[in-house]
Write a sequence for this structure.
């Protein structure tokens, strides 16, 4: 078992700007885009931490909270060695949606990032196959954003127009 | 073009399976690239059943969304109900009564058996073993009668509420569960007899759909697919919830990583679920099934008619635009559903609706390595491999 304090020390020794907070369910690391790829590789490959398992990738839109950056991309990691979960949050502003892909580290990200892409519009740079997964290829817009209405914007007609 | 036999040349062929195919159980489409009868590439196209449950979650109160959770994994709706209610309770910080915990464990384990029986039946039916299907579905029918008697519905159960249940279980619940515990081992023995050492069955599914340990971890699969690849991970053991830390059960693991090992894992899981149910029903406690705080449960009718507090709580619970507020914060909470880790990630801003409701569906993640599983196998194995993953389209597409 690795203590949360150890995770904190290990992260802060290498990444001075990343901050670790203890949430009730699991420790959470907030990271800037600059440190993000190295931090993820470090979390996976460090022999003490070894977060070798990517449980989930998703986004959250804070439009109505008027927060900057507008989006969070949330990664849930798990370590078999330590039986420990960890959440990594990456803030993404509405103007710059480019994010490095994690599919080279964890193949689980292949589909999870595709879903996050079609729902929120994040551009996962380096993803080998960034197409829409659940929605039709011609779909326009990103439905899980807060400025997207519940009843849609007439995509049904777009789909029907396909010949 | 590639030369196979002298003078005979073959082209690669694209074969489209689905969206409507008797063996896909729900609408999903597979595009298989074939060389002769060998699959060189398999690409799943999903999303035919996408219903926007996550978006709807942002417009519904917490208790309203429970009805939608039924529609995700429609083979074990109770597991979804329980997983979601538990996530919200943890976010609020509610501790449900002892009896409610026992009921939840019993219903979750019986759902697991029901889910595995459907999987076993249809998996065998797809490959051509029809008898096992009939035996399995008879036992599943006992369970569905039990669920109907308890919750009022066979499929759309919507039985849990945040802080407990819609209502207590009927008086004869214990008796019915005991009857099932008595009857089921015989069925399980018959199923083992029909399939497990059956020469045709073994020849058909051994050694196909191989998923290595490394790939299983890398692709993040969970549940029987992960355990069928030899990794001992189960949310019930690794992050015990409800009363699982007090129960005596084992997690079956099989090292081979093929369709047959996933079959063995699921068959043993049914036996373990029965063992858990037996322990729960042995010391089934009395008492309330809902939390005492009337902010989170419908008050008794007597109170609604005769006290002003009761009336206020009643209206607060049922009026549109009301519903209890959930403290601001976020939580990821997972339960072990029949297909694997069913996680809910909730972000609340302190109002009666979440600002983000994310479902981490086991089927979705388990289906992602389908291409790896399919490569090098025959077309006819596609159905067997698909069956071994037990993809539920409602949960896959949400």
């Amino acid at each position: 078992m690795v203590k949360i304090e150890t995770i904190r020390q290990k992260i802060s020794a290498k990444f001075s700007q990343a901050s670790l907070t203890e949430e009730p369910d699991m420790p959470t690391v907030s990271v800037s885009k600059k440190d993000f790829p190295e931090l993820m590789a470090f979390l996976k490959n460090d022999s003490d931490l070894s977060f070798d398992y990517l449980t989930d990738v998703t986004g959250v839109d804070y439009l109505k909270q008027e927060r900057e950056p507008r989006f969070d991309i949330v990664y849930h990691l798990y370590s078999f060695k330590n039986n420990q979960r960890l959440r990594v949050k990456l803030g993404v502003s509405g103007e710059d949606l480019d994010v490095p892909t994690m599919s080279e580290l964890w193949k689980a990200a292949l589909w999870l990032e595709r879903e996050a892409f079609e729902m929120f519009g994040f551009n996962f740079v380096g993803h080998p196959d960034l197409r829409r997964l659940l929605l039709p290829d011609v779909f326009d817009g990103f439905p899980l954003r807060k400025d997207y209405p519940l009843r849609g914007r007439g995509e049904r007609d777009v789909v029907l127009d396909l010949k | 073009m590639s030369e196979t036999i002298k003078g005979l040349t073959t082209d690669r062929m694209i074969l489209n399976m689905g969206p409507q195919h008797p063996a896909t159980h729900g609408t999903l489409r597979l595009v298989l690239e074939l060389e002769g009868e060998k699959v060189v590439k398999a690409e799943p196209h999903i999303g035919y059943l996408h219903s926007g449950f996550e978006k709807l979650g942002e417009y519904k109160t917490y208790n309203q969304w429970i009805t939608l959770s039924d529609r995700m994994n429609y083979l074990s709706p109770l597991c979804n109900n329980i997983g979601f209610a538990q996530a919200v309770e943890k976010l609020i910080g509610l501790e449900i009564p002892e009896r409610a915990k026992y009921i939840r464990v019993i219903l979750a384990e019986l759902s697991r058996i029901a889910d595995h029986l459907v999987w076993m039946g249809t998996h065998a039916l797809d490959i051509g073993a029809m008898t096992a299907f009939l035996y399995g579905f008879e036992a599943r029918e006992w369970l569905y009668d039990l669920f109907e008697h308890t919750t009022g519905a066979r499929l759309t159960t919507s039985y849990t509420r945040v802080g407990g249940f819609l209502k207590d279980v009927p008086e004869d619940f214990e008796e019915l569960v005991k009857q099932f515990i008595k009857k089921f081992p015989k069925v399980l023995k018959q199923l083992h007899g029909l399939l497990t050492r059956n020469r045709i069955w073994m020849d058909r599914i051994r050694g196909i759909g191989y998923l290595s340990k490394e790939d299983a971890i890398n692709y993040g699969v969970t549940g029987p697919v992960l355990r069928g690849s030899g990794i001992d991970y189960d949310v019930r053991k690794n992050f015990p919830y409800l009363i699982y830390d007090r129960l005596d059960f084992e997690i079956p693991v099989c090292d081979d990583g093929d369709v047959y090992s996933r079959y063995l894992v699921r068959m043993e899981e049914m036996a373990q679920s029965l063992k858990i149910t037996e322990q729960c029903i042995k010391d089934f406690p009395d008492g309330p099934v809902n939390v005492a705080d009337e902010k989170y449960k419908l008050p008794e009718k007597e109170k609604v008619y005769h006290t002003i507090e009761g009336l206020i709580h009643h209206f607060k619970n049922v009026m549109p635009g009301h519903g209890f507020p959930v403290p601001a914060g976020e939580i990821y909470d997972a339960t072990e559903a029949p297909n694997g880790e069913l996680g809910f990630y909730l972000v609340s801003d302190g109002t009666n609706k979440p600002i983000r409701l994310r479902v981490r569906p086991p089927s979705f993640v388990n289906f992602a390595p389908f291409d790896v599983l399919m490569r090098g196998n025959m077309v006819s194995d596609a159905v067997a491999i698909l069956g071994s993953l037990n993809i539920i389209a409602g949960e896959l597409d949400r």
